[in-house]
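3.2 Worked example (two chains)
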Amino acid sequence: MPFAAFVFIFSSFFSIGGTVNHRPKSKNVIISGNIDFLSDSTTISITLASPIFGFGVFGNEDITKIENFRRTSVSVKVINHKFSYKIENVEQPLKIYIGRIAKPGQAKFDLYLSVSPGDSVIVINKNNDLFFLGKRGAKFNCEYQLYQISRSPVTYTWMAHGNARPDLTLWYFQQIDSLESLSLKKLEKFKRNILPDDYWLFKADIFIRFQYNKFDWVSSFGTESDKSRRVDYLKDYKSLTWNKKQDTELDQVNSIQHISLYFEFRINQFKMDSCFMKHKPFNVKEAYRYFTKHYIGSVREWFIYKLMYGNRLGGQDIIYCINDAFNHKYISNTSIKQYLTDLRVFTPGTLAFNFALSDTSGKVVRLSDLKGKFVLIDTWHIPCPVCRQLHPILDSIKSLINNNDLVVVSICRDVTNHGKKKWLETISTGAYTTADNLNLYESDPITGRADNAPFSRHYGFNGDPNLLLVDKNGKLTERPTYPLMDKGRSLVWLIKHNL
C-alpha cells in the first residue's frame, strides 16, 4: 500500500519589516526534491488549506483562484526518488507543509516552508538530514532548522504528565524559554544570508509559537481550579525572551495575523492575562466583546471564528455572539459566515439530526428510536486526550442521575481510519466510554473518515469531544458549560431539569 505524503499549502500575506521585494517575473512556484528514501510507491498529496483553520479550502477565498488548485487535493508521484510540482499563477506568498506517514524505522520527511511567487524549492537528503539548494536555500534551511527545534518533545510534555500537571508549570515555562532562546540564536546565524522580510517573519513566528505553548499549558486542560493552581506556580516567573515591548511590536508587523497560530496565541493570552492571572473563569462573551472592540475587518472576523470554533460547547453564549456578529455585519468571509450559520443548528428547540449508526452488534440505531428518552450524546475519537479526561466525569454524572429515562449515547467518530475492530477493543478498556452506554460508530464508507459522514457533517464536527442534549421529543436543549470547566455542574442541572 503506498505511503502518503502531505503538502498543506497555507495562504499567508507577508510584508515584514517594511522591505519591498522585486516583483518576480514568474508567478509560478516549483517544489521539487531528490530524496533517496522516497520510493516509487510514494504518493505526495498537495492539499489546499487555510493558515487559520487547517485542512481544506476553508476561509481561503483568495488562494482558490490559483488555477491548478481548483480541487482541494493534487497527487504527485515519486519517480526514481524524485518529485516535482509547479503551482501556477501565484499572486501571494504561500506556506507549505510537506510530510509523509512513515513506517517505524523509516527516515523522516517532514518540512514546513514559506515560499513566494517565482520561488523554486529544491530539497535533497544528506547524512540522514534534509538540505535546500538554490538562491534562497539559506532561507529554507533556516526555516527547516527552526521547525525542527519547535518540534522538541518538551512542547508535548503535557501529554506525558497528566495533561499539564500544575506542579510542572514553572519547569515547563523555563524549558519553553530555552527552546525559544535557542531558536532566536539559530535565526541570528542566518540573518546575513536571508532577506529582512524573512528574518522578521521568522522572528515573529518564534515568539508566537513558543508563547502560545506556554499559554496553552495553563488554559487548555482541567478545571478552573487546576488553571488557578498553574498560575500560582508562576508568581516568581519572569520570561527572559518575551516582554511588553515585543508584544506591542508584534501587532505592528504587517499581516502578522496570517501566521497560523496568531489567533490562538492572542485568545490564549487574553485567557491568561484577563482570567487566570486574576483567578477569574473564562467567559466567551467577555472575550468576544474584547476582540470585537480592539480589532476590525478581516482580523476581527477571524477572531470571532476562532472563538466560536474553540468554544463551540459554550451553550447559549455562543448563539448570542453569533447573532451579535451577524447583526453588526462583522462577517464578510463566506466560509466563516457559513460555519457560524451552521453553528445555529445547536439552537435549543431545533429538531436534532436523526442519525443512523451501527452499535457494537452491527444493528443500526436511529435517534428517533430513542424518542421518549432524554439523550446525552458524547463524541470521541482515538486518540483524544481530552476525551479520556472527560469520560470519568460523564460516567459519574450518569451514576449520580441514576434514571432509566437518561440514555448516554457514546459515538466514536473514526477520524483516523482505525476501523471497527479497534473501536470495539477500545470500548473494553473503558478509556473513552463504558460498555453499558449505547456505543455507536461513525465512519464515511468512501474516505474512512467520520468528518465526511452525515452526523459529523451536519453539526460541523471537526474535533472531539462534543456534547449534545436531546429532549424526549427529539429536540436539542441548551448546551451545557464544558464539564471540564465546571466539573459537570451545568450538565447535571440541565439533565435534571429536562427529565
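3.2.1 Second chain
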Amino acid sequence: MRTFFPTSTTGFTVLTIAIALADTAAAEQPAGYAGFDDVHQMPFGRSDMTATVYEATEGPRIYLIGGCDTDQICYDPNSTMQCYCSGLTAKTQYYSPDEDRYSTTPADAPRARYRHAAAAANGVIYLFGGRTASDDVITQVDAYDIATNSWTTPCTWAGATSDLTAFTDGDQIYVVGGWLPDYSAPSDATLAFNPASCAFVAKATTPVAKGDVASITVGASGSELHFVVGGFYQDFCNGEKTVASYNATADAWTVRQNLVLGRADMALGQINDHIFAIAGESVNDECTRSIPVVDVERLDAGLADSSAAPYAGAWVVEQSLPSTRFRFVGASHKAIYLFGGQGAWVDDIDGNGNGGFPIISTTMVYRPNSTVVPGTDAAAASTAPTAGFAAAVAVLALAVSTLQL
C-alpha cells in the first residue's frame, strides 16, 4: 500500500484508508477479469439438485430444489461406482445474482428427491423423475407456483426416469433421457409435457440414449435450440462425448461435434449463445472409480461468420477449475453460476474406514475470457468502476477536503 505523510493527522488517516480501499478495489476487479470466483456460500451443501432461472420483477432468481445434502459414501472398497446418499432434502431456495444473496423463504417441495429434472413454464417450476433415498424412481410431478409460494402435485408420470434433463420451449416442457428404474438401460425418449393437460407426448427420439445428461437452451424466443450434452451410455464406465441439439418446431435432432473430453454430471451455461461445459464426472480405465473432470470447454456459436452454419464448429478447452467438483448444477445470468456438488475422493469420509465424496456448499461464478466472448460481464468489469472503487473515490474526496482545512 502506498503511504503519504500530510501534516494533518486526520487527513493522514482518511487519505491512507482511501488509498487502501482503492488498491483493494483494483485487486478485486482487475481490467479484463475473467475466470472463477467464490460468491455467497449456500445455506447448506447439496448435490444432484436442480437450478432454474426465473426473471422476477425485482431481478433474476435461480431456484435450487431438492438434492442430496450428505456426503456420498462408497461401501465397496474395490469400487467407488456404488455410492449412496443417505440424506435427501425437499428444500427450495433461491439465489439472487444481482444481490449475491440467498433466500430461504420458498416453501419446501412435497417430497425429497435428487437426480431429477426441473423446468419452468408460465411462472411454475415443474419437477420430473429422480430418486428417493432408497433408490426408487419418483413418478409424481410436483409443481411450484412462484407467485403464491405453494406446491401442488398435478399428475404422475408412469415412465419416469432418473438422471434426466428438461427444458422449456414456448408453453411446453420437454423431458429427455435418463436411466430406467432398474438401470438396465438409458432412455432415448423425448417427451413433450403440456402443463395445462398434464399429458406427455412422445417426440423424435434422441440420437443416443443417455443418462446423467445436461441441457442448455440458446437462441431467440421462437427459434431456440436445446443442446443435450455428455452423460453415460449403456454403462457407467465411459463418459460420453456426444452432443446433439433439438429443434422443437421441427421436432428434429441434429448431431453436433463431440466434446474434447467425455463427461457426465456436468454444469452447462451459455453467454451470448456461446455454450460452456464445465467440469463433470468421468471414470478410470478399470471402471472402479469416478474421476472428476476439471476443465471448461466452449462451443462457439459461430454467429460472427454469416456464411457458416451456427454451432457447426468444434469444442475447445478454455481453462481449468480452481477446485474439484461434479454432480453439481449451473445457471446463466450475464455470467455462469455454479452451485454445490461433490468434491474430491476422501479415503475415510465417515470415520468408519469407508471412502466417499464430500458435499460442497460453495457458490462459484464463472466469467469467460472477454476477448473470446465479447460483451460478457468480464468486458464490463474492465471499464466500469466497482462499488469498492466508488467508495474509495468518495473517501479520497473527503480526505482532500480535510487536508485543505
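3.3 Remarks
The first strand starts at residue 35 and ends at 38.
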